[in-house]
Predict the 3D structure of the following.
Amino acid sequence: MQEPHHYESLIEKLDLKDFIELFKDFFARPKPIHLEGDRSVLNYFIKELDKIVFTPPSKIKNLDNQILHLKKFGILKIEEIFEFIKIIRYFLYLKSLANITEEMQLYKYLQNIQIPQNLIILSQHFENTPQIKSGIYEELDSLNLSLSRQKTQISKSLQEILHSNKLSPYLVDKQIHYINGNETLLLKSGFNHSIKGIIISRSQSGFFYLLPNEIYNIHQKISELNDKLQSCLYEICKNISANLKKELSFLSFINKEFDKFDHLQARVHFAKTYNLEFVTNKATNKNIILKDFSHPALTHPKSIDIDFTSQLLMITGVNAGGKTMLLKSIMSSIFLAKHLLPMKINANHSKIPNFKNLFAIIADPQNSKNDISTFAGRMLNFSQILNLDDLMIGVDEIELGTDADEAASLYKILLEYLLDKNSKIIITTHHKRLAAMMAQDDRIQICAAIFDEEKQIPTYEFLYGSIGKSYAFDSAKRYGIPETLIKKAKEIYGQDKEKLNELIEKSTQLEITLKQKTAQLDDKISQFEKKKQEQQEMIEKIQSQYDKEKSYLQTTYQEALNELKAATKEKELSNIHKKINQANKILNTFKKENKSIMPKQVKKEIKIGERVKYGSSKGSVIGKNADLCLVELDEGLKLKIHSSKLKTITNPPLTKNHFKIQFQNPKNANISIDLHGLRSEEAIEKLDKFLSDALIAGFDEVIIYHGIGTGKLSFVIKNFLSTHPKVIDFNDAPPQMGGFGAKIVKL
């Protein structure tokens, strides 16, 4: 339902309109926000563009009509031709960038764009404006020169007239007055005998604005020259248009490719300007994981963390507690990621899947013009999505517009139908009946908006696995309803109803807790069964190896025994010795060949906090990343070592009095370094020593200040950090810590 060109209503519902309009300002020319193409390739382009410094394109007009005009052998205006020139010049600029290197996908993409030589030459014929350079067309240069001379002649003639003694008595002032684009003199009456001309107008004081005949005649010549100039430009545009027609297929191609690159550069510069991030982590399933996400419509947002791994998220609880904004936030993150738009989020720890269809039922659909009620509008919305595949839907206040009990039964069936189609769903509700009816479904995740009962205000935070109260009476009081009216309402509501609601909440909570504990127990049983199976397989394998060794031993023993028996039958002493030696040889061979074929013991996984031995040194594991362990030796050193090189021990750590080696951190170790103004070689030398000192000092994170400047020092530092064996990751610093002029490095 929300494919390209059909997402404007969704943008409105999710409060993203201002954010999207802000983004559109970064386009070189207006276009829809959706970006077509392979998402993985486009993500790669965005990552590469984010790492280089380049100038965005200037504003360019849409040229679809001009391309259609060329197809029909039309003649373009000089301004329209120049718009094509701007596109060609921009791609030539991109192809010339030294920081787009051969190993980059952008380099390969740009190299595949082969600009025809005659278009390159044509681009060199223009100034930086829609004006052809001199020296290209002789007739055009001649006409421009004549026009320039005539304009100069106007200034010269006016100066001569103004300084004429004959006219001086009639001059009101010595200014040139422009009336309707004409240069006029302001004269007193009686000037007729001193100068001839055309009266253009009269001043409020009764003076005359006169266009002298001499100036009028020059204007006539200029007009004639302009006519010739326009005729000359028409012929030039005609010839250029004919040549552009020959390259029409390329112009159509480059026009589309410009829009594609415009999409990419706008996203990158938008992200850099507002310190936003792209979520490019591929989600292998439909799980939604958000870390530190903030909705762009909020001025001072409280960032949210979401681990939405179920199929349906049901948000309950207090009025004005943020339920709707949580729904909009999750839906907005999916919409922005779908269209490769940056957002305020911790992208490294977030995963957002792609959905073919996004649908939001948020606003009240009641419409008097269409004679449709709130509930009827909701039913119409649901009827439109029941048969959609790969659907993400958000529904706000799901029971709105009808009886809550009837709605709970109806929506339970509708939601289960959508869940069976593997749809992903978020709903908000004030009512507990639907939550209670669906709480035992394993596909559903429940969270409640938290209310601070002591301060009587919502916290805009959420508790997962719980059904919250609506706190309607508390909210009414907070928004100005008198206490006396609220008290009467509570009396009508009754204690029995309140107790029933509390019972529903407790019952539902018990069901949720029981389901969680059952799942944990099932997991433990599964682990036990797995270990039991592994042990059974180990016993069978040991028994098999035992039987094999026993058989081999019996066979060897029998062979040696046979040799000894044969020795007793020998009469000569030398033969007896030979037989005994042969028996010994058989037994010795058995000892050498009888290597243990017992299964190798699986090495125990090393955990954080365990005591280990590395070579002759001992220490404790204080951190771990996969098979890489961070070990603090008893001598005081910290080392990153593969777990295969460590051996677990039971010795307690030595006290400081028992340390055999005392290691003192470098005196000049610091968490930051400033490389402003240094040459590349000098900066790298200092940076290398700085990182070594930081590693010895045990720093996990440092900051490097290099400034922005020409970008050369930043580029050199990026390359050095990318190849340093002890650098885990690095990124541009936040704006308050230096932004693009600094790097945060993780060691």
Summary: The chain has 20 helices and 21 strands.
